[in-house]
Design brief:
Layout: E1 3-14, H1 23-35, E2 39-40, E3 44-59, E4 67-78, E5 85-94, E6 98-102, E7 109-111, E8 120-123, E9 128-134, E10 142-146, E11 152-162, E12 181-186, E13 193-194
Parallel strand pairs: 7-12
Antiparallel strand pairs: 1-4, 2-3, 3-4, 5-6, 5-11, 6-7, 8-9, 9-10, 11-12, 11-13
Length: 200
């Protein structure tokens, strides 16, 4: 249930030339331009407009030349819930931050070192995190399982945090030090971590 429908009310400006049989398409296009791929604090990352529920207004203020209208719409939103298990791709490993994951359309996913599979270590030479598996039947032996970049990984959502600013994830240069939305997860559980570790 990563994606949900969320109802929002938004004010848009539309040129009167778009009025007519295709005005709903024009409103959809305008809403998508304004909201798609942006984070609404407390709601999630907007994927796109699903449907228009109502439109009010349509008056052209004197001297403006644009029609202002209040639009109520259902949006498709990326809104992961705590406890949800999600498949992603491992983007990179960091000695302090842990591992960073990506869903392709969303990159601000972090698994901090304390939520990696235990016991673990950071390999400074290869710059990767390693799960040092110890077999109960062979406690004197360790088996290293590497967190490999660009490979599939499963994690469980621990929390979703929203930043102070709302930034786009595709246009311009987003503030990576203060992303508008960050998902924190864990892989410290059987079945989680690199999918290659577990037999189907």
């Amino acid at each position: 249930r990563m994606f949900v429908l969320s109802t929002v009310t938004h004010i848009i400006s539309l040129h009167p030339k778009y009025f007519g049989p295709n005005d709903v398409d024009a409103i959809m296009h305008e809403l998508n331009d304004k909201l798609a791929n942006k984070v609404i604090r407390g709601v999630g990352l907007v994927i796109g407009v699903f449907e228009i529920l109502s439109v009010k207004g349509g008056v052209v203020p004197i001297g403006r030349g644009m029609s202002e209208m209040e639009v109520v719409a259902n949006l498709i939103v990326f809104q992961p819930f705590v406890g949800e298990v999600i498949s992603a791709s491992l983007s990179s490993c960091h000695p302090k931050k842990g591992i960073c994951l990506s869903l392709g359309f969303f990159d601000d996913i972090i698994v901090s070192p304390e939520h990696l599979r235990k016991p673990f270590e950071y390999n400074n030479k290869d710059k990767v995190w390693v799960w040092q598996y110890i077999d109960a039947e062979q406690p004197d032996q360790k088996f290293d399982f590497v967190y490999e970049a660009e490979q599939p990984i499963r994690f469980r959502v621990l929390s979703v945090k929203y930043g102070r600013s709302v930034e786009t994830h595709s246009d311009g240069a987003p503030d990576h030090d203060n992303p508008p939305m960050t998902v924190y997860g864990t892989v410290d559980q059987d079945g989680l971590g690199m999918t290659s570790w577990w037999s189907e």
